[in-house]
Specification:
By secondary structure, the protein is α+β, with helices and mostly antiparallel strands. The chain contains two helices and four strands.
Length: 82
């Protein structure tokens, strides 16, 4: 059985105490890459509640474009609260 470490191609983590984000580039069983974005929120008793989004390789370009467009508009003051 293949471990998750062997399937993880690259990884970044950021956040602060109580809330962490992981951006992992993974390799599927068919050898195609996919992106897994996970948020982990600290709960009581040393436990974390996790939620993830998976993006397949065919959607990478669209995802990057959408995030870039949102951040570009935000940097020019569009979409910010008054």
């Amino acid at each position: 059985m293949e471990t998750i470490q062997k399937r993880r191609l690259d990884s970044e983590m950021f956040g602060e105490e109580g809330r962490l984000y992981f951006v992992d580039l993974m390799e599927a069983k068919n050898k195609r890459p996919y992106l897994q974005i996970t948020r982990a929120d600290y709960q009581a008793k040393e436990k974390y509640e996790r939620s993830s989004v998976i993006l397949f390789e065919r959607d990478f370009e669209f995802f990057v474009e959408a995030v870039s467009m949102i951040l570009r508009r935000y940097s020019y003051g569009e979409g910010r609260p008054a």
